[in-house]
User: Fold Formyl-coenzyme A transferase from Rhodococcus coprophilus.
Amino acid sequence: MNPTASTDELPSSTAPLAGVRVVEVSSFVAAPLCGMTLAQLGAEVIRVDPIGGAADYKRWPLTEDNESIYWAGLNKGKRSFAADFRNPEAQGLIRNLVLDAGILVTNAAGREWLDYDELAAIRPDLIHVQVLGRADGTGAVDYTVNAAAGFPQVTGPENLSDPVNHVLPAWDVSCGLYAALSVVSAVYRREITGAGTRVVLPLEDVAFATVGNLGYIAEAQLGGPGRRRIGNAVYGTYGCDFTTADGIRFMIVALTPRHFRDLTELTGTTHAVTALEAALDVDFRDEGSRFEHRHVLDSLFGAWFGKRTAADVEEALAATSILHERYRTFAELARDPRVTDNPMFQKLDQPRIGEYLAPSTPMSFDGVHPTVRPAPANGDDTAAVLSEHLGLTGDEIDALAAAGAVRTKQKDPA
Assistant:
């Protein structure tokens, strides 16, 4: 925490990082998610971008007015500083902002004016978190990292031979949260020891560590059977998706013997399943046995779902312990009470885009979610940041803007 923080900046339950200031030089998902997470926890996060925005400033989805809904979602609660990254004077301003804040989060590479060694030589307690594509410094993004992680080879229908990519940027999301954890850990360490920290976080290593933590790499190294595609089944236990009489699909998971017992009772297959156990000489209380013989079980249970409407299925499942969920579209989710009545989602009037429900952090503090704040436009806060943190006068800021070194305010399209 900044030792000179005012009383208004002191941490509260919903803003535990109040008084912490972070400069973020980033684009796309991982690093911006890190900054947004820190901002939601009360830190002042200054996102530094080129004039006109970085490569993600107009990323889809877009509004009819060409404003990025994506960018607004990942930059809520930040301040925007816009500068000409090729201008030496602007580079000096950004360096000074980093040195004044004492924390930098970036996925930019090859910029000497953001180099850790040079900055730490001036401010030894600097916290410098750099997200890379790969540990060797070469480029990578979520979708190329995922290709190397093995998952596309085991995703999709059982009879498919081609790799299947998932649409969720899971490694970016994990990397962004790892980066935020790195900052919080380094801030704590600095409070205790006064020391700075250099953190290097390769996106590829986030993916590979996760694959290893889940046991997939060890399984292969120890000679285990190669993983195969299993469609929507759940590896090592019982899970299957079923279609109702009116064409709605449900995902059903029976992790425990109780779940499985309830599923057989619900579907009226208890006697048939008992006979199947005897015929196969297995015990379906063991989840591995349920997985191995899943296709036979799918046929038994599927008949019950196929004769009932989604409403009837939902009502019946709700009275059991069975883990279940109806497949929904994004549009259906947006109307679901789990969003519309969820205190994590708050009504946000996002300039240039409109009013909608936007999520705060999933964590609640003492029963309260932090307030959702809108994302800025490129350069909205440049003048205020230069004045508040670098002490520049209005005339000095105007001169920098006139010279094209910085952008001080988004121009009104009208």
